[in-house]
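User: I'm putting together a small comparison set for a docking exercise, and I want a reference complex before I start. The sequence is below, and the ligand is flavin-adenine dinucleotide. Could you produce the 3D structure with the ligand included, as structure tokens?
Assistant: Of course. I'll restate your input first, then give the structure tokens for the complex.
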Amino acid sequence: MAEPRDIVTSDRIEKVVVVGGGTAGWMAAAALSRFFADGKRTITLIESSEIGTIGVGEATIPPIRNFNGMLDIPENEFLRETRATFKLGIEFVDWGRVGDRYIHPFGNLGRDFHGISFHQLFLREVFRGAADPSSFADYSMSAVAAGLKRFGRPSADARSPVSEINYAFHFDATLYADYLRRLAERQGTVRREGKIVQVRRHGETGDVASVALEDGVVIEGDLFIDCSGFRGLLIEQELETGYEDWSHWLPMDRAIAVPTQNVASPDPFTRATAHSAGWQWRIPLQHRTGNGHVFSSRYMDEDEARSILLDNLEGKPLAEPRTLRFTTGMRKKAWSHNVVSLGLSSGFIEPLESTSIHLVQNGIARLFALFPDKPISPAERDEYNRGMRDVYEDVRDFVILHYKATQRDDSAFWRDVRAMDVPDSLARKMELWRLHGRVFRENAELFALPSWVAVMLGQNMRPEAYDAIADTLDEAKVRTAMEQMREGYRATAERLPTQEDFLRRAGAWYQDQPDTPSVRFGSFS
Ligand code: FAD
């Protein structure tokens, strides 16, 4: 066994350098400076306004509230400053079959009875012809509120259906990065404007020692956080870590994005509408709507993709459509030498389930859990890489499910994705569902049981049988309880304010002067 080592100041990482000032860079700088800009350590962020940021990434998933909470960000202020709206889930249109519509809501899907999964009791009703499979969303407080365009923060009273609401945000990515920048700078992050033109390495270890800017300034670091976007300036261009390409499962490689004017009060959900070689997002913010067509260039050219997007907009475009290119996959090692990649430099999975910003947050949390000393321990680095791989693969499998579980055969794209082989980890999940509608959340898997159930049912994957354990409960009693549950969700949702009213009353509507104190994260009143 190794001798315990005395930690002396010189063993500590002192200089952390964040390369890039997009959403990932400022999330990292805000989080790191919250804890580490303590006079003993410095956090420097380098960004180049000439290169700019990707400027998309507007929909999130609920754990973003934990990230903001960690930074002590007042939620109403954040909503106002980033022109944000609430997101209760994603509405999928035309995915299982053309004409289908379902929601993947956040939060619970019904309540379990005596430890038996609600969805098994629901499946029993479906098998007996007493429920339509598509009616599962009636048992989700978030879905019912979303359907009525209403919103309420989760109540602390566990007996209230409102306690079952779970939510995330839609926000303006540029404004979020600006907001985090102000916070990070207040906490001591030093921002350096400039383009990195050279990277210097330690001769012996191969670690990155410093980066040089165009104006000749050299910035040294002990730990580098590569948030330089798709180019992966340090992790790939310098360290040549390698990329695992997943486009054989997820062939989408382009997106055309365009913001439009709002035509109505914003909905508290994202919409994802399938097209013949991809899908279109609609993300309603307070001041505009974000839209984009994600497609595979193997099946559709850019002109056709652009005209499909423009033909399916609700409001007037506010800018010229912009094309973005990507390859789905992940860096073989998210952390190599003394470089931790976060955001697009570490990998990318198309935005169908709005997971990229979460992957940044997840990487930051893991980095905190494994924050190194000098020299960096390979065991801690390997642990980080193992954990990041797990979460990337979780997201990958869940996103692939949306394509594999289609009945569409109206284009070569849909015929191919429906026939493709899927990763073994997903094939196993699909088989367990096919047999008895069983789903298990493995380890710290990102998407919980209700998410899998919603997408599987939403895309018409009917299991061959339900779990026999459901038959141990009295059918009439369960039916009555389910009816009461459904009615409770509906009646509760009808009493909630519309999302716009809620935002206005909270002082979170950007056009209004704040007239009520900001609610802090964690205060769910
Ligand atoms: P970028 O925004 O590209 O920032 C890179 C930074 O590095 C910039 O500041 C740049 O100036 C700097 N830089 C690069 N090279 C140098 C250099 N040589 N010198 C100095 N600075 C340099 N995520 C979600 O969570 N939800 C979504 O709905 C969503 N939608 C998306 C839709 C599309 C089409 C795409 C492509 C992505 C989407 N994402 C989404 C992902 C999201 O946009 C990114 O995860 C997020 O913006 C983080 O980007 P980034 O900071 O890693 O990179």
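Residues 16 and 78 are 27 Å apart (CA to CA). The first strand starts at residue 15 and ends at 19.
User: Thanks, that's exactly what I needed.
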